[in-house]
Amino acid sequence: MKLLTWYRERRRKKHLRQIAPFVSLAPDSYYGPGFHVDLRAPTAGKTYLTVGSHGMIEGTFVFETEGGSITVGDRVHIGPSTLISISGIVIEDDVTIAWDCLFYDHNSHPVRWEDRKNDTLREYEDMTATGNPLLHKDWSHVRSAPIHICSKAWIGVGCKILKGVTIGEGAVVGAGSVVTKDVPPFAIVGGNPAKVIGSSRPDPDKTT
């Protein structure tokens, strides 16, 4: 067990060194064994991931093109979830994100068959030739839009947050929800697609 722990920590430190030119990570946040940054086509001098202070970070951050960026504020908890960006994802301060969530700021493939019919063949050819299945991917018909998670929001386990969504301050997204539209501040939403089912605002008539 000690040997396995040593190996994992050694691998984690090696990964942090490899991604260092492309990230800005506050030294006073915790980056757990599940923390991983996947850079498919990094551009020298570009900062893809920024993380603020006093966070608990376990997620996988994927950048499929030379574009995209993810900014994480202070005191943010991100469990073992996946964030994929070619446009932009902003997570403000004091946000809680549970495990098994997915943040996807693009459609990955065009909606029309005529525009995506060659995707798999091109991926296969790139993968077998270079090891990078997205090397020659045609992104021109792929829709994308930034995601914005405002401060104090809580994203429950297993949620899917799709392109162009803003989740308002203090909002709560119930477990397993698929969010396709903006969530108002201090709303509680749930379902697929997610709809408002309550409010997270303090009740002035209740005392603790």
Global mean pLDDT? 93
The backbone outline, from C-alpha atoms, is globular
Q: Helix share of residues? A: 10-25%
The beta-strand count equals: 20
Strand order of the largest sheet: 2-5-8-11-14-17-19-20
Low-confidence stretches: none
SSE order: HEEEEEEEEEEEEHHEEEEEEEE
Please tell me how large the radius of gyration is.
19 Å
Strand residue content: 25-35%
Query: Which structural class is indicated by helix and strand composition?
Result: alpha/beta
Q: What composes the largest sheet?
A: 8 strands, mixed
Number of helices: 3
N-to-C CA distance: 44 Å
Write up what this structure looks like.
Helix content is 16%, strand content 28%. By secondary structure, the chain is an alpha/beta fold. It has a domain at 2-106. The protein has an eight-stranded mixed β-sheet, with no helix packed on it. A hairpin with a 4-residue loop joins β19 and β20. The N and C termini lie far apart (44 Å). The mean pLDDT is 93.
Give the key terms.
20 strands; alpha/beta; six-stranded parallel beta sheet; 16% helix; 208 residues
Write the layout of secondary structure elements.
Blueprint: H1 2-19, E1 23-25, E2 30-31, E3 36-39, E4 49-51, E5 56-57, E6 60-63, E7 70-72, E8 77-78, E9 82-85, E10 89-91, E11 96-97, E12 102-104, H2 113-116, H3 119-130, E13 147-149, E14 154-155, E15 160-162, E16 166-167, E17 172-173, E18 178-179, E19 187-190, E20 195-199
Parallel strand pairs: 1-4, 2-5, 3-6, 4-7, 5-8, 6-9, 7-10, 8-11, 9-12, 10-13, 11-14, 12-15, 13-16, 14-17, 15-18, 17-19
Antiparallel strand pairs: 19-20
